[in-house]
Design goal:
By secondary structure, this protein is mainly alpha-helical. It has six helices and three strands.
Length: 147
């Protein structure tokens, strides 16, 4: 075993790789062309319609350029609309289309179900503990909002 194999950063990166692989596999099996970041964007927009790209980037933990590209792709797929903000003409507000709402409704149960595959080997108590500890660390780091 090498030094970094037990370090949090390495383990987090490996679990992220697993998470992405499982997500993409399950979406493909269900017949959907959707990435984890696209799903996160749709999910955030369903909660806050009309969010501008900068706030969406903050909400899903991505940089503005990445969210711009994600918004482009979602718009091309007919899942979101973009329009200039009434308060700031430079800002583009994003809103789910009916197709975006439908896709989110169809894929959310798949995403819920695949969560069980992301932490194999943990029993239900260990799974809950992992979520609690990860949430505590993410909040302390300021990368997720307080509830």
């Amino acid at each position: 075993m090498y030094r970094s194999s037990g370090m949090p950063g390495h383990l987090i990166r490996r679990l992220h790789q697993l998470s992405t692989q499982v997500f993409m596999t399950r979406m493909r099996e269900a017949g959907f062309d959707l990435t984890p970041v696209q799903f996160a964007a749709l999910d955030a927009l369903s909660d806050r319609p009309g969010t501008d790209q900068a706030r969406l980037a903050q909400a899903i933990g991505k940089d503005k350029a990445t969210v711009g590209a994600v918004a482009d792709r979602l718009e091309q797929k007919g899942l979101v609309t973009r329009q200039a903000s009434t308060s700031d003409k430079r800002a583009l507000q994003l809103t789910l289309t009916p197709a975006g709402e439908d896709l989110l409704e169809k894929t959310a149960p798949i995403v819920e179900e695949l969560q069980k595959e992301l932490l194999p080997g943990l029993n239900p108590d260990e799974y809950r503990q992992f979520i609690e500890l990860a949430t505590k660390a993410a909040r302390a780091a300021g990368v997720v909002a307080e509830e």
